[in-house]
Amino acid sequence: MDHIDRKILRELQYDGRVSNTELASRVGLSASACLRRVQELERNGTITGYRAVLDRTAVGGGFVAYIGVGLSDHSKAAQEAFERSIAGAPEVRECHNITGTIEYLLRVEVADLSMYKVFHTDVLGTLPQVRSITSYVVMGSPKDERA
Question: Which CATH class is domain 63-137?
Fold first, then answer.
């Protein structure tokens, strides 16, 4: 990967729908050379996909919380069981296995506080592996560069 590839990646992270011609212009390549590089970045797995950035409120997910989850059992089996359960929960938009005093950090999107309570009680609260749940409600996101 060279500085041109890094420029291409920066531009695509900013605007994944940019035309190849415009992208080539921004990074200083011909359209054909730019297309070859983008295709190679896709082929080798550097670019893993493209996404639409949504207005959470418009799609019924205006309430966002980060949740720290501690497990009661630190075994591989407990982690795998927890991860399987979370994979089936549409409210969970991100699940990260982390280091520190807890095992997981989740980003949850639901319509409102009452729907969060349902998720908290009926999903997380019923998982036998869960020892602790700590919620951090997002009040605003002045910078969010996730795609």
Answer: alpha beta
